[in-house]
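pls design
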């Protein structure tokens, strides 16, 4: 079996009746066998590759706040998040101050916060959000790995380097959602 980190991951709803609808079309066509073991659907296609589909209970969609001063970064993160079925509303802010206002208005379940931003950086925004809304899961993002320790000290639940592949962010999101 291929390494889980290398496998394509798709998250499915609590019910197993619509599992196939979340598979990419090419996987549906070439699927030879599918078994459900311990809440994980394993699909083997005709090339021998395995797709791992983990079941995550979905009582409600996860509300996300994306905070980054770069519009392109926010758009990219929103596009990536949109591929994950458990994500509901995605709001965005360009500064730490905007993020605080949005959290005050309606706290998200999860926030993705960049470190370097004008007005208020992501570490200060993380400190303030965690102080008032400790239930909000926060993943701090930066291209600079030296911010990882500061992110943890500010109360972040995880740090992900922007230079990592998208799977690293999805893994961090999955861990944060499971802790909720």
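designed seq:
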């Amino acid at each position: 079996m291929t390494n889980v980190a290398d496998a394509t991951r798709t998250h499915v709803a609590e019910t197993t009746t619509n599992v196939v609808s979340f598979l990419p079309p090419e996987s549906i066509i070439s699927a030879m066998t599918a078994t459900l073991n311990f809440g994980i659907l394993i699909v083997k296609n005709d090339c021998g590759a395995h797709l791992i589909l983990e079941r995550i209970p979905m009582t409600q969609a996860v509300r996300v706040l994306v905070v980054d001063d770069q519009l392109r970064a926010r758009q990219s993160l929103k596009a990536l998040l949109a591929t994950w079925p458990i994500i509901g509303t995605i709001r965005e802010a360009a500064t730490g101050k905007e993020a605080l206002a949005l959290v005050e208005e309606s706290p998200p379940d999860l926030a993705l916060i960049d470190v370097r931003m004008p007005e208020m950086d992501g570490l200060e925004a993380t400190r303030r959000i965690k102080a008032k809304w400790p239930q909000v899961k926060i993943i701090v993002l930066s291209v600079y790995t030296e911010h990882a320790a500061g992110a943890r000290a500010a109360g972040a639940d995880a740090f992900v380097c922007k230079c990592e592949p998208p799977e690293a962010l999805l893994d961090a999101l999955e861990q944060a959602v499971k802790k909720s």
